[in-house]
Write a structure and sequence with these properties.
Distance between the termini of chain B: 64 Å
Helix content of chain A: 55-70%
Structural class of chain A: mainly alpha
Distance between the termini of chain A: 58 Å
Helix content of chain B: over 70%
Main location (chain A): membrane
Membrane topology (chain A): Multi-pass membrane protein
CATH architecture of chain A: Orthogonal Bundle
Number of domains of chain A: 1
Subcellular location (chain A): Cell membrane
Order of helices and strands of chain A: HHH
Oligomer: heterodimer
Organism (chain A): Chlorobium limicola
Strand content of chain B: under 5%
Number of strands of chain B: 2
Number of strands of chain A: 0
Largest sheet of chain A: none
Pfam families (chain A): Oxidored_q2
């Protein structure tokens, strides 16, 4: 499964970069989100996969021993997911605002702060 | 060091006593002057005083100070002229804004200049050297609302700063050769230095530094432009002291670098060229200060030339000339300021007949002018006599140099007639303001300097005679026996002096005839180094603009492309060495549903990339997110899965709500650019996948994992370790995260709810 997840991570990165290189701003936002997923999966996979043993301390015992999933990458990812959502929400709304103000979703039209020449 | 503190305190005093500030300010340089003169007997006895404060001992950089004949002379000039200028400026600067700032700058300058001439340590000297450059920049650009001021300030800074860099390189080379940062340590190693293969490079670099600072040809152009500064600054920095820093350096280094053909000939030629050229350039100037500036240039050239001649007599002439020049030029500049102040104009074509209104100023100006022209019995006369004598003494080139010197000095006489004497005679013209005698504070300084010039001329033995021997001995190795006198009898030197005066009169007459023809015409447009400077500056700006356009073109895509490719290239080139084999491919122990999940993700990514419908793309994005959540569930991360599900749901809803009304995707890019982007993306994706495989092929021993497993319940009172980490062990982190979310929420709210005034739809 590690191999598959490596491939998935790579694909997510590739797709994310590809989308972020688009001129359409919505696609750039998609790319940003995909890159977030990719980073999360990267940390998750690199922290080693453990099947079916979550990091819970069982009832009646005061510590966890034996084989169990590493809690630290999970904690990091949890933070990252939430922050990622913040960024996502912000960019979506930012996009909406840009759209309403400028009437375009083409990034190449947003290179300058000057007023576009009126024809 | 105290100087910096004093100059920093200046504004407070100024605010309290604006009226009498000049008198308070003058106490500082005057105090320094007298404390320096108290060293006189010891210096005169040939003693060299040293003091060291350790600064960066590990690099051999210390604030060590050296007081010998050379630095003593400069220190006296700096403090004496400083006193006159401070007193003068107290009154003169009243009609400028920010006068308190002026005193900070000029105090800073005086302190740095003193540091420069007193430093024994080369590195410390360089720091002071640059400080004088900076304070000069601030002072030239003092009227910073004028464009010309700012431009001149920038020019002075760039030219002297560029020279400073060359100097630094030269000094470091010297250090490399000799292994010492002290001037006094360099002297014994002269033999080593002169024979080193690096000697020519070091010498040329040091000379470059000195030439730019002292405005030698072809770097002379910044000095006349620096006349934009308030007049006290021109008097102090740009005639009496700072521009002599380069001369000082040359004199100081004469011990170490001198004696070779390279050193002597270069100085001789550059000095002579500067002396004649700048005097010629003054020919068609009409501005009082510019005229004086060109004459300063000419004198600086003469001084350089005298070091180049390098004989005992020449060094002696160098000192007399230096002292004389500081006295009369400081005076003349201050007088020029007074005239400007009183009559409202500095144009020599307009000024005239001021003598009746300003008798004391006229007397002062007369004294200084006669000294500058070299009329008996002023100190300038002795300076010029000694100069001629030292040239005549030379074996070769003597004939050409004497001709050059006579012409240059003749032109100086002309300048003096135009700038120092002419304004007071003749008929009064219509002036911007009615001339009146200057207040006492503006008169006292220049008058003292002028009278000193007279006294030094009348009693040279008392003022300079005793000093000169050890002065010269601090530049040359051996002591001298030569007495200066005012009157040498009738000889060829005296004849030359008369010839000079005669030349000056002739030039003056010629100028009056020629000036109307020359008016408004540029004489030497091609050979103007300032146009080289302009071209160089414009070229540099063009290069900067060009590279900014390449690197910072404002396109997100280009930035990302550059970042991605750079990251991959660097990482691959570093890692390629450390990983010899391709990563071990882990066994494919997968279950059916895992394959399904992975396939779903891959397919939805594909849909997301290719879809032309926005809604379809959002759904694909949601599917990707939810599938990731399922992977989290499978591999023991229920919390992650829950969060992902919640957030994906929110995200999809948000997308749909916001994007619902938008039209279909428009495709902007061409096939070629897509192919290029796809290639970049694939390279990065493959690289990341390989990174994952490399990383997991190694062992992971995380002590943290065991620590959290053990500490979670006893210390964090929780059984869900992931949660305990978040809210307990990394609580501050989580607090930060919440803050980020709050800020994002405020941003979202603001963008959705608030509308710009009258602007948006």
């Amino acid at each position: 499964m590690t191999l598959l997840l490596a491939i998935v991570t790579g694909s997510l990165y590739a797709a994310g970069i590809f989308l972020i290189l688009r001129r359409n701003m919505v696609k750039v936002i998609f790319g940003l989100i995909l890159l977030g997923h990719a980073a999360n999966l990267l940390i998750f996979t690199v922290g080693r996969l453990t099947k079916g043993i979550p990091a819970f301390v069982p009832e009646g015992s005061d510590m966890l021993t034996g084989r169990f999933a590493d809690p630290l990458p999970q904690a990091l990812i949890l933070t990252a997911i939430v922050i990622g959502f913040g960024v996502q929400a912000f960019t979506i709304v930012l996009f909406k605002r840009t759209w309403l103000t400028l009437g375009t979703e083409d990034l190449d039209m947003m290179k300058t702060t000057d007023e576009p020449p009126k024809e | 060091m105290i100087g910096f503190a004093v100059s920093a305190a200046a504004p407070f005093f100024y605010r309290r006593f604006p009226g009498y500030f000049g008198w308070i300010a003058v106490s500082f340089p005057l105090f320094l002057f007298f404390s320096f003169t108290s060293f006189y007997p010891r210096i005169a006895a040939g003693e060299v005083l040293r003091e060291t404060v350790f600064w960066v001992p590990s690099l051999g950089i210390n604030l060590s100070f050296l007081l010998d004949g050379l630095s003593f002379t400069f220190a006296l000039i700096i403090t004496l002229i400083g006193a006159a200028v401070f007193l003068y400026a107290g009154t003169y600067m009243k009609h400028y804004g920010h006068a308190s700032r002026f005193f900070v700058y000029i105090g800073l300058f005086m302190t740095s200049m003193l540091g420069l001439v007193l430093s024994d340590n080369i590195a410390a000297m360089f720091v002071f050297w640059e400080l004088t450059g900076i304070s000069s920049f601030l002072l030239i650009g003092f009227s910073h609302h004028k464009e010309q001021s700012r431009k001149s300030a920038m020019q002075a800074l760039l030219v002297t700063g560029g020279g400073g860099l060359a100097l630094l390189a030269g000094l470091i080379l010297l250090y490399g050769i000799s292994g010492t940062f002290e001037f006094s340590g360099l002297y014994p190693k002269r033999h080593l230095i002169v024979n080193s293969p690096l000697y020519p490079a070091a010498t040329v670099l040091v000379m470059l530094g000195a030439f730019t600072k002292s405005a030698q040809f072809p770097f002379h152009f910044w000095l006349p432009n620096a006349m934009e500064a308030p007049t006290p600054v021109s008097a102090y920095l740009h005639s009496a002291t700072m521009v002599k820093a380069g001369i000082y350096l040359l004199a100081r280094m004469n011990h170490v670098l001198g004696g070779t053909a390279l050193w002597q000939d270069t100085l001789l030629v550059v000095g002579a060229v500067t002396m004649v050229c700048s005097a010629l350039l003054a020919f068609n100037q009409t501005d009082l200060k510019k005229l004086l500036a060109y004459s300063t240039l000419s004198v600086l050239g003469t001084l350089t030339m005298m070091i180049g001649i390098g004989s005992e007599l020449a060094i002696k002439a160098f000192f007399i000339y230096l002292i004389a020049h500081s006295l009369y030029k400081g005076t003349l500049f201050l007088v020029a300021g007074t005239i400007d102040h009183a009559a409202g104009s500095r144009d020599t074509g307009v000024l005239g007949g001021l003598g009746r209104a300003m008798p004391f100023t006229m007397a002062t100006a007369m004294l200084a002018s006669f000294s500058m022209m070299g009329v008996i019995p002023l100190v300038g006369f002795i300076g010029k006599e000694t100069l001629y004598a030292s040239i005549l003494e030379m074996e070769e080139w003597s004939r050409y140099l004497i001709a050059a010197a006579v012409i240059a000095n003749g032109l100086l006489v002309m300048i003096t007639l135009v700038a120092g004497i002419r304004p007071f005679f003749g008929s009064m013209r219509r002036l911007p303001s009615v001339p009146h005698e200057a207040p006492f504070a503006m008169l006292a300084g220049p008058a003292c300097l002028a009278v000193l010039g007279l006294l030094a001329g009348l009693f040279p033995d008392f003022f300079m005679g005793a000093m000169l021997d050890w002065l010269a001995s601090s530049v040359l190795a051996d002591t001298l026996t030569f007495r200066i006198k005012l009157w040498h009898g009738f000889n060829e030197v005296l004849f030359l002096s008369f010839l000079t005066l005669l030349c000056g009169m002739l030039f003056y007459a010629a100028r009056i005839k020629l000036l109307p023809c020359l008016h408004g015409r540029h004489i030497t447009p091609v050979l103007k180094p300032s146009s080289w400077y302009d071209a160089a500056l414009a070229g540099m700006l063009r290069v900067a603009r060009w590279q900014t356009r390449i690197l910072q073109n404002g396109s997100l895509r280009n930035y990302i492309t550059v970042i991605v490719l750079t990251a991959v290239t660097l990482a691959v080139s570093v890692l390629a060495g450390s990983f010899s084999a391709f990563p071990e491919i882990p066994a494919l122990d997968v279950t059916f549903y895992e394959v399904v999940i992975v396939s779903i993700i891959l397919v939805s990514i594909l849909v997301l990339i290719t879809s032309s419908s926005r809604l379809k793309a959002v759904i694909a994005l949601g599917v990707t997110g939810f599938s990731t959540g399922i992977i989290f569930i499978l591999y023991s991360a229920p919390d992650l899965a829950l969060t992902t599900f919640a957030i994906e749901t929110l995200g999809v809803i948000l997308f749909v709500l916001v994007l619902y009304r938008l039209p279909r995707f428009t495709s902007y890019s061409t096939t070629a650019s897509r192919a290029r982007d796809a290639a970049i993306a694939c390279v990065f994706g493959i690289f990341m996948a390989l990174m994952v495989l490399y990383t997991v092929s190694g062992e992971l021993d995380s002590g943290l994992k065991r620590y959290f497993a053990g500490a979670s319940l006893p210390e964090g009172k929780g059984r869900n370790i992931v949660n305990v980490i978040l809210v307990d062990f990394r609580a501050i982190d989580t607090l930060g995260e919440i803050t980020v979310l709050a800020v994002a929420a405020i941003g979202v709210f603001a963008m959705l709810k608030l509308t710009l005034k009258g602007g948006s739809r």
